[in-house]
Design brief:
Blueprint: E1 11-16, E2 19-25, H1 26-31, E3 66-70, H2 71-76, H3 82-86, E4 92-95, E5 103-106, E6 109-110, E7 114-118, E8 121-122, E9 144-151, E10 165-171, E11 183-193, E12 198-208, E13 213-219
Parallel strand pairs: 7-10
Antiparallel strand pairs: 1-2, 3-9, 4-5, 5-6, 7-8, 9-10, 11-12, 12-13
Length: 230
């Protein structure tokens, strides 16, 4: 660079975005033979923390697209397992090679790219393999009170595990007792499906007192071979 002529006591400053600024008098530059070295400056960026809170909200007031499948709809349209129940929503595709299986897919993504929550607890994460995983069938469909499906960008709150979407499954709550009887309710359900040759009896007991409660559900599922349509 060319330095204009001036007095020896003139001060010149050197600035660069990647280096620390330095100032010299012209006389100093003459002694240095106009060779200036700058010290590299390391820019330390403070940690940025982004917080988001999940609060209970009416999905009709939410800007996100949330699809809901309730227990009434699941019982009126018999489903062999939890994966079949998720298939009631047209945005969820189920990959299955047998009647008792099922791996959900949302927007072409599965396993490690869609998040499965049961009562707010993660059932999978990013370390799952990229292929289909049938872990959703480990949850008894008769214990589900409702399922919420959040699609695409609306699931960014849950992190990179939910690029395709989130399936939030809520199970029945155990109710406290308001009488001297411990047994609060007993539900028996027998479901059959002729096309899949499926049978599924279920017992669900709710027991509790004034300050404690519990629920027990027992299901026996029998599936036959998945038959190809003619």
């Amino acid at each position: 660079m060319r330095i204009p002529l001036g007095e020896t006591d003139d001060i010149l400053a050197f600035y660069h975005t990647s280096y620390a600024a330095r100032t010299f008098q012209r006389g100093q530059l003459i002694q240095m033979n106009y060779q200036v070295s700058l010290r590299e400056s390391v820019l330390n960026i403070q940690e940025v923390v982004i917080k988001a809170n999940r609060v209970e909200q009416d999905n009709r007031k939410s800007a996100q697209e949330i699809r809901t499948i309730d227990a009434k709809r699941m019982s009126s349209q018999f489903q062999g397992n939890t994966a079949d129940a998720l298939a009631l929503d047209p945005n969820v595709f189920i990959q299955k090679s047998q009647s008792g299986g099922g791996s959900p897919m949302i927007r072409g993504m599965s396993t490690s790219r869609i998040l499965l929550l049961v009562d707010g607890i993660r059932m999978n994460n990013a370390i799952f393999r990229s292929g289909n995983v049938h872990n959703v069938i480990s949850l008894d469909g008769t214990t589900i009170s409702n399922m919420e499906i959040t699609l695409g960008p609306g699931s960014v709150l849950h992190g990179s595990d939910a690029m395709g979407g989130v399936m939030h499954i809520n199970t029945y709550d155990a109710h406290y007792g308001d009488s001297t009887e411990i047994l609060q309710s007993l539900v028996f359900d027998l479901s059959t499906h002729s096309s899949q040759l499926t049978r599924r009896p279920n017992f669900r007991l709710n027991y509790g007192g004034s300050n404690w409660a519990g629920m027990t559900s027992m299901t026996y599922s029998q599936f036959r071979d998945l038959r190809m349509g003619s």
